[in-house]
């Protein structure tokens, strides 16, 4: 397998999974007080990530009926033959269940959008997350099912190599973010770093 593509696939898998282990981070320094006035309706809708290594994530966020504090987040990944994510979709990755984010309070803080970027002031809705036990499926004209080191994999075959995702049951756990923030048409999934927050995923409203 092409090493660069393999690394990209792993990063995309974790992003799409909304999991990866670990509990939401707890601030080790002074933390601004939480309020209880979060507006979860601001997150409802369809959001799209930037293109990364042939792949584009689409997150659909919904409010479950009867819950005032919960969001569900379902992520679908579309793969393209080219690295600019244009043209025909050659593979689509879906999960059998969604991530749940439960609102616990709002804090005034700042977000670092990415490496080398300046922090921005933001209101962050802190959440606890739960990724249920689930499976992954890939479908499309460029998808094959292979056994690699005794493990079944879904593979997307490109001209220069393949990107593979293990076909297995993924254990339940926490997602790799503990906060959400909307800045205009931009959505950030964020993780506490002890004093403020780092963005772990960035989407734009469709």
Structure description:
- With 206 residues, the chain is mainly beta.
- It has one domain (3-205).
- The chain has one helix spanning 3-17, and strands at 45-49, 55-62, 70-80, 89-95, 99-112, 120-130, 134-139, 143-148, 151-158, 161-166, 169-170, 179-183, 186-192, 197-205.
- Strands 1, 2, 3, 4, 5, 6, 7, 11, 12, 13 and 14 form an 11-stranded mixed sheet that branches.
- Strand 9 (151-158) and strand 10 form a beta hairpin.
- The longest helix is centred in the first third of the chain and has 15 residues, at 3-17.
- It is globular.
- The two termini are 34 Å apart.
- The relative contact order is 0.23.
- The model is unreliable at 1-33 (pLDDT under 50).
Could you give the topology of this structure?
Elements (H helix, E strand, L loop, with lengths): L2 H15 L27 E5 L5 E8 L7 E11 L8 E7 L3 E14 L7 E11 L3 E6 L3 E6 L2 E8 L2 E6 L2 E2 L8 E5 L2 E7 L4 E9 L1
Parallel strand pairs: 5-14
Antiparallel strand pairs: 1-2, 1-14, 2-3, 3-4, 3-5, 4-7, 5-6, 6-12, 7-11, 8-9, 9-10, 12-13, 13-14
